[in-house]
Amino acid sequence: MDLNTVLDVRDARSPAPWRPGDAWLGGGTYLFSEPQPHLRRLVDLSRMGWEPVRELPDGSLELAATCTIAQLSRFGRSRSAPAAPLVEQCCRAFLASFKIWNMATVGGNLCNALPAGPMISLTAALDGTCLLRAQDGSLRRVKVADFVTGAGRKDLGEGELLRSVTLPARALASRTAFRQASLYGLGRSGVLVIGVLDPVDGSLAVTVSAATVRPFRFWFPLPPGREEVYRVIDATVAADDWFDYIHGLPAWRRHMALRFAEEIRRELATRVTATAGETV
């Protein structure tokens, strides 16, 4: 779609004062999908030269805000880490053509803050941390689960930039389980639940998204029972936190989220003993 109110496009490599009507331009798949009458200038990030995915010395991964879904998918499929399959599962949760895959970015998906955003689901489940840069150059870090504050809302100041998301090595070494549901085939996610079992202390994190207006990450120091999972989710997610939209009513979203949470709990709590070879 033509944005006929935009008068200028600025290269982000050349610093200039932020002004009303400015917007960061990553892949542009959302910006150019509908009218943006409040915009006057786009600040283009496409030439920043940020490495899409970078492995840090401590084994964690840094995903650049400009990393495209296609780049992330290729990287995930090339890795052997226990959590690597989750990357592809979340990439495939997009309702998008190959053209979108090659333009849409991780940062754009987070900053749109839509409940069905699968990059939000992925990075929140793996305990990701956002690196944010203000116009004065100052930096701050916010957990992904806290960065998205509601449907279309995020913890991002005027002119502030999401630079990257870091996924800790410990989460990448975890076993994961993935469940997703839509009201129709190839539809937008109505419910997306991810479980992450820590390899060090055996703790379990269950992240509910798409069904809710923001991601909810529940951490259990020991594998919980079914009733505990249900109780914690119902005590934390308020009635108006279940997303009410055409792609699924709140009651259906809650029902499926609880069902998937229990399936994930059972899947990740099941192990094969090294000695007897029996499932417990």
From TrEMBL:
Transmembrane segments: none annotated. This is FAD-binding molybdopterin dehydrogenase. Signal peptide: none annotated. The lineage of its organism: Bacteria, Bacillati, Actinomycetota, Actinomycetes, Kitasatosporales. It holds the Pfam family FAD_binding_5. Residues 1-172 form the FAD-binding PCMH-type domain. Gene3D superfamilies: 3.30.465.10. GO terms for molecular function: FAD binding; oxidoreductase activity.
